[in-house]
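Lecture notes, unit on binding sites. The following record was shown on slide 14. It pairs a sequence with magnesium ion.
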Amino acid sequence: DDNNKESRGALVVLEGLDRSGKSSQCSRLVSYLEGQGLSAELWRFPDRTTNVGQMISAYLSNASQLDDHTIHLLFSANRWEKRSLMETKLKSGITLIVDRYSYSGVAFSSAKGLDIEWCKAPEIGLLAPDLVAYLDISPDKAAKRGGYGDERYEKLEFQKKVAEHYKVLHDASWKVVDACQTIEDVEKQLQEIVLSCVTECQKGKALSSLWS
Ligand code: Z5A
Ligand code: MG
């Protein structure tokens, strides 16, 4: 019903391999939108500030060991605990620029060998992004960027598997951006894509749920 269309913020997700430039581009996007007079916030998953997030952080830094299914469900729970706040912010007109989301959850866990449908199931009912921008880079090129840290998953062989599993999740609605361009060129491309998404949401595009 067109009469019920209400302006809202956009849910924008950046995905991509480790070192693809997500965090750099997310913060640039928030500054850009604010410069355009729009309200925007930077979010990231995992959100390591919550109790669940601290368990995830311990796992990633190899301070704890968890069964693959268990850590998968914790990543998902970490999104569920932010879901209602996410909806409130979007409805109040704030655009959320989110550094990783359910696609990371499914790509990383299925890369370990878990069934993809099983991996998607706990994500069902979370808010669906209005835009998924995928920062595309080969695992080899990504590895050359300053090298990986010491966290679990930060290894070339595993990143290659993750890249394959991201490919399975790709759909036609994703915007694939060549992440091997300069930071500034990636930034310019993202600004255009994101601004048109924000405009659509201001016009009252309905919020929807994963996994559709
Ligand atoms: N994970 C999961 O398993 N399940 C889930 O549900 C979720 C996540 C949500 C932690 O995530 C791990 O959790 C992650 C996935 C898993 N494991 N891995 N791998 P995280 O988000 O905390 O990971 P991170 O440490 O922030 O990964 P980052 O993502 O390393 O990289 P990035 O944010 O994509 O890149 P960046 O920090 O912006 O840039 C990396 C470097 O490249 C930096 O030196 C930049 O200056 C440089 N850079 C950036 N862009 C360029 C360009 N265009 N040219 C040249 N150099 C560049
Ligand atoms: Mg990052």
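Take-home: The helical segments are 22-35, 51-60, 68-91, 102-111, 116-120, 139-144, 156-169, 183-202.
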